[in-house]
Description:
This protein is an alpha/beta fold.
Amino acid sequence: MAVTILDPNTALILIDLQQGILALPIVHPVQPVVQHASELAEAFRRHSAPVVLVTVTGAAPGRNEQVRNNGALPANWAELVPEVNQQPQDHTVSKKTWGAFTNTGLDQHLKQLGVTQVVIAGVATSIGVESTARQAQELGFHVTLAIDAMTDLNLDAHVNSITRIFPRLGETGSTQEIIALLDRSRA
């Protein structure tokens, strides 16, 4: 469903816009994705709406079929890209799982602020973004996804998330559509 409304208490969650992730081979040019995410962050801050900046700093335990790189991560792995322009009032989350809500206290933080809706963007669409959107929806938040402010490591996975999964979790829209709704709802 196309984005139609933003609740009065809506927060922005930006997933894994960090040096290490954005250095991986992603399917869309990184600059427009980061630019759109930055525009969303600035709009939310302008309206004194919560901004959550999420980074991944490890991996959940458990086996899978993929070979893990057990070496040390590069020193700047978890550093947010400068374009995000982290501000003191931004809430930061460091996660070790795909979703931003698992063992991070994010649910409690947002509920203490009275947040009822989240706008989610970032990398990777089918991993951190989708997992966080699923968790948010399961926790009772209304979910909106900024589809031009995300990308993935795999084009098929990205398309699947946007066309098949996201419409079942909430509403989708462009950065400009979301900012226009935010501006109108806060006027």
